[in-house]
Amino acid sequence: VLFRSVSQSRYQPSFPTDSIAEKERRFRDTRYHQYSKRIVDFAVKNGAKTIQMKAVDSLRPPKEGTDSFLCALLADWAVCDLMGKVKSKAAEKGIDLVEVNPAFTSLRCFKCGYIDEKNRPEWHKFKCVSCGHESHADQNASQNLTIIGIDQIIADDIASGKVVPIVTDRKSVV
């Protein structure tokens, strides 16, 4: 049976005219609602008054070439969509959403606060050259984002000269 009445099943049928793109869009939208609900529920459960997330304007710049630009644009669009859902759900619960500049959060040691390019021996590994703390690079950066005002703390470290400008093949990061 292709079509069932709503009374026969709580699930609506998948219509043959639905495009795959439309099914993917609905699936993605449902997932983002689920993820945003989990994030906000976690904040409520732990008594958080603020959720900090990477600032949308700080996401990776697109590389040269049309395909790379389109990929970066679509990835940023997805992040913006998720952030919008988190923001609205957080507002319902009285929780603020603060967008933070994530610069140096992946190079800063969560345990001791030391910032060095050498803390990232490989793209996915973090090992502090000062205190020896080891973790996955994304986990370390996420833990740094839990510190309220981390972007200001890092900016103060840069202003005081604790952080040396990092030079990549494209341009200086600082």
Notes on the protein architecture:
This protein is mainly α and 174 residues long. It is built from 4 helices and 4 strands. The protein has helices spanning 20-45, 66-92, 137-145, 150-159; strands at residues 50-54, 96-100, 125-127, 134-136. A two-stranded parallel sheet has the order 1-2. A two-stranded antiparallel ribbon has the order 3-4. Strand 1, helix 2 and strand 2 form a beta-alpha-beta unit. Helix 1 crosses helix 2 (66-92). The longest helix is centred in the middle third of the chain and has 27 residues, at 66-92. The chain is globular, with a radius of gyration of 21 Å. The relative contact order is 0.10.
Termini Cα gap? 62 Å
**Number of H- or I-type helical stretches:** 4
Name the shape in a single word: globular
Helix % is 40-55%
Mean pLDDT: 80
Find the count of extended strands (DSSP E, 2+ residues): 4
Give Rg in angstroms.
21 Å
Order of helices and strands: HEHEEEHH
Q: What is the SS-derived class?
A: mainly alpha
Strands of the widest sheet, in order across it, are 1-2
Main sheet overview: 2 strands, parallel
Strand content: 5-15%
Highlighted features:
disordered C terminus; 9% strand; two-stranded parallel sheet; mainly alpha; globular; two-stranded antiparallel ribbon; 174 residues; 41% helix
Blueprint of the fold:
Layout: H1 20-45, E1 50-54, H2 66-92, E2 96-100, E3 125-127, E4 134-136, H3 137-145, H4 150-159
Parallel strand pairs: 1-2
Antiparallel strand pairs: 3-4
Helix pairs in contact: 1-2
